[in-house]
Design a protein that fits this description.
The chain is built from no helices and seven strands. A six-stranded antiparallel barrel has the order 1-2-4-7-6-5. The chain has strands at 27-38, 44-61, 65-69, 72-84, 97-100, 106-109, 122-129. By secondary structure, it is mainly beta.
Length: 135
Amino acid sequence: MRGSRDIGQQSHTNREASEMTAGNLRSKLHFQKRGQSDDGFGNSVTGEFETVFTDAAEIIPRMGSETVIASRLQGVQPFTIRVRSSTQTRELDATWRAIDARSALVYSIVSPPTNLDQKNAYIEMLATTGGQTDA
């Protein structure tokens, strides 16, 4: 019976996208991008972040790091965000951010979505917190 305890207990980082189930998408994220507006003189001006859609996601922590920005040490915590592939989620890129609907934690998306299993079931992207995520 010693071996039966280990069945089904895999690390999140070792689980492949093909092994994903909807039950793993326990977080709810608001995906936002900056709006564009007119300044009154015909120029396009970048505005505040606006929620475009909300989706269920799995948030997987990765090893953190500390970077030096402007001679200050800043801790950066990277995460892998995994969502179902859809026309909306495939539009995400590094200009977007995600906000946890429950904790209001801001995730800055730093890489475009990747279709790991090549079946368009789930996509993953790298995001960070702790840096300049709301700038």
